[in-house]
Amino acid sequence: MVRFAWTYLAIIFALALHPTLSWAGETHAGKAEFGKCAACHLTDGAGVPGSFPPLRSNVMALAETDEGRSYLTLVVLKGMSGSIEVEGNTYFGFMPAIGGSLEDQAVAELLNYIVSEVAPTGQPDLEDDDVHEVAEPRLFTSEEIKAYRSQAAKSHTHKTMLPLRTNALSSSGEESASKGDAQ
User: Fold this and answer.
1) Which of 8, 32, 125, 153 has the smallest number of CB atoms closer than 10 Å to its CB?
2) Going along the chain, which residue ranges are E strands?
């Protein structure tokens, strides 16, 4: 009887943590694909200081400009290597491309999950006086991803992402720009 109870509890616990299930029967379409990202950036997008950058600070600003949206999409499609600075910390590493095995709609859903669920909730702690309404993010579409994928096929590799990041951050008004050279 005790063994059955532990097995039952283990199954309930596993179901509660499964990325494509929720108790309310509602889940975001990009959540399952985000599991690949969460292996490094963590499920809340906080990243690991010194190893993997957080997704919470620049992502929201980048998703508001065409240059930023192109950059975010191309990083998912092509990966990235080199040195970047995020929230005052420098990260030097390699992010593999994960979008090559995904359809355009799945890439759009992944990016939409990041900008609508992960990035807004992962904002650094704010004082009560600093809390303000977060605007609804501009969602990615499969048509937009298709256009960026076509652009990426012609001219981009993981080594060309740093200049795109610098331009995208400049156009979004973000202060933190890329540092260093791509590998």
Assistant:
1) 125
2) 80-86, 89-95
